[in-house]
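Hi F.,

I've been meaning to write this up properly since the lab meeting, where we talked about keeping a consistent format for the predictions we share between groups. The idea is simple: the sequence comes first, exactly as it goes in, then the structure tokens exactly as they come out, then a line or two of notes. No screenshots and no reformatting. I'm using this chain as the first example so we have something concrete to point to.
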Amino acid sequence: MSHSQRPNGKRWFTDTRNSGPPPNRDAEDESINSGSNLFVTGIHPRLSEDEISRLFSKYGEVEKCNIMRDPHTRESRGFGFVNMVTAEEADAAKDGLQGEVYEGRTLSIEKARRARPRTPTPGKYFGPPKRGMLPYNQSLAILRVELRLC
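Output, unedited:
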């Protein structure tokens, strides 16, 4: 630890143990986007991954298409990812389809910031309570009352 004087006369402490340069990121890191992964918004809920793949295949070979869906209802969330084989094909698709109106929705296309999704949080997330369902604590209270009545 070292310390130095701030302009207001107070000291501040600096930890000098890890003051080296940031760790070098490997070019092989799979979280880095090679330029061929596109983030697409404005996808109509009725469209399937096959239809989006066909739309993008006019500009090159589509490696993978993934539309994001609500985990409970399986309805489209209106956005997804299209992975083209090469970055040049991705650029051509982005330039050719950016701002196009397809099924009444305007497509917006950007290069995805990551090549793969983030690692999911451990545990289960069931989302907000559904309409018509009571929260867990209220369900237990009703069950206790019913048991007392028996």
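Notes:
Strands lie at 2-5, 11-14, 37-41, 62-69, 76-84, 101-102, 105-106, 108-111.
Confidence is low (pLDDT under 50) at residues 25-30.

If this format works for you, I'll send the rest the same way.

G.
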